[in-house]
Amino acid sequence: MSTVSALILVGHGHPNDAGNRPFAQVSLEEGDRPVLLLYWARRPRAVGGEVFSTFRMIPTLEHMLDDSILMEAYAVCRHPKVFPEMNRLAKEAPLNTRWLHMYEDFTTTERESLYAMAKDRDDLPKMTWCLFDGTHMEDSMSCLNDYRLECEVNRSVFSRKYEQFSDSWQIRGKLEQQTP
Question: Considering the entire predicted model, what is its pTM?
Fold first, then answer.
C-alpha cells in the first residue's frame, strides 16, 4: 500500500505576495516503489502537441528532486529543449505509454545529461515542494541549490500520530501562536 509523502505544486508565484497559483500538481507516492503522479488543477491549452491528461514517472531513489524537475519540464511544460531530448533517448515510449521509468528508460550518463540540461533552465514555472515526515525526497533536496528556478520548500512542523503497537499518541513539533 502506498502513501503520499510529498506534493509538488507547479504554477506561478505572485510578484508581490507569497504562495503559488498552481496549474498542476505532482504527488510522490511511496510504497513498494516510488511513483510521481501528475494531476492538473487547470488544464492548459496544448502547446507543441497534445497535453498529457495523466502522466507517471518512476523516479530514481538517489535523484528524486531532479526527477521531479524533469517531470515538470517534460510532462507539464513540454519544454522545447527537454521534451524532444527525453523522447529521443526513451525512443518515444513515454508519448505512447504516459510512463517514464528513470532507471529503465535512461542510462546513468543520459540521466546526468538531462539533469544538467534542467539545471540550466530559468524559464520553468515556480515549483513548491510540500514534504511530509519520512519522505525519501528529503534526501535529495539539497541539490535544489544547483537549479535556477523559482521555488519553495515546505516541511512538516507538527504531527500527531496514533501508534497502534504502543497504543499511544506520538507528537512531533510544537504549534505556537505567531505574534504579528
Answer: 0.87
